[in-house]
Prior knowledge:
- The protein has about 350 residues and is α/β, with parallel strands linked by helices.
- It is built from ten helices and 15 strands.
- The termini are far apart.
Amino acid sequence: MIVVLKQNSDQERVDRLLQHFKDMGLTIHYSKGENTTIFGLIGDTTRLDERDVLAYDIVERVQRVTEPFKSVNRKFHPQDTIISVAGRKIGAGYFNVMAGPCSVESEEQIVMVAEAVKKAGASFLRGGAFKPRTSPYSFQGLEAEGLKLLLEAKRQTGLPIVTEIMSEKHLDLFADVDIIQLGARNMQNFMLLKELGRSNKPILLKRGLSATMEEFLMAAEYIFAGGNTNVILCERGIRTFETMIRNNLDISAVPLIKMLSHLPVIVDPSHAAGRRDMVQPLSRAAIAAGADGLLIEVHNDPRCALCDGAQSLDIPCFDAVMADIERRATFEGREMMPQ
Length: 339
Ligand code: PEP
Ligand code: MN
């Protein structure tokens, strides 16, 4: 971190700031020019917030040289991380498709969709039991009962399950869930991030609706800081001024995350556009950009879905999209994970 001081700063206050940095265990490169004094801080500056340094009146500017995230940073962990869940590998070219309805609605529905997505080649069943809805009057999910139905679908098909948690109070209910999803709206729910950090479950962390890359990776850093290193990142589109699509898939996030971090990246083309006619083209883009998998909403009868029907593929459509994904992912050198 580089700290530029204001001209003609009082030496006593400069010394006090220097001492503050030394007390933090940092080494200081002190450069005093004719007009400008600069400190180069060397050491672990992850605990130092630029804004706190700016609180000193004598500081003109602060520039971070290294990223504030450490454990998820590729600089300190050059190899791709591979997460192993239920016999599937995720990351480093191992490609997984997680598919299923936005919400679990009934046993017949979830079992039927589970069987269909398994047959088409998906390696995980996704389905929401606890749903974060904008309106309190919308369907909120079957909650604990929905989790039971997902586990029943898992028992009948053998597909491992991915489902969203909305409160740390529910963690016990997720004991047999294979991957816990932390949704976009909770990406900066720091209590939940800390609790998930203390658990040993793989976490699918979705990017917040308007989260910067740094905020996204800092959320992953929270989970690592608690001791849980099983984190999969999910790009699901960000808010922009466009109204024809629900969100805007930030495809550049995929190579950017790969450059900055060693964690696997999954793309969710369903929530990214909010339209089923864009799931296939966005899936192709995700594969080409280097994604390690896809999260796709599939419903047996999208017109009657209790949540996100407009973006859900029906089963014949998913079969066709899945065949295309398999071809393209294999062509791009990925290894499709078996069921
Ligand atoms: C979901 O996966 O159903 C969901 C609610 O996603 P997001 O958190 O990305 O909106
Ligand atoms: Mn949904």
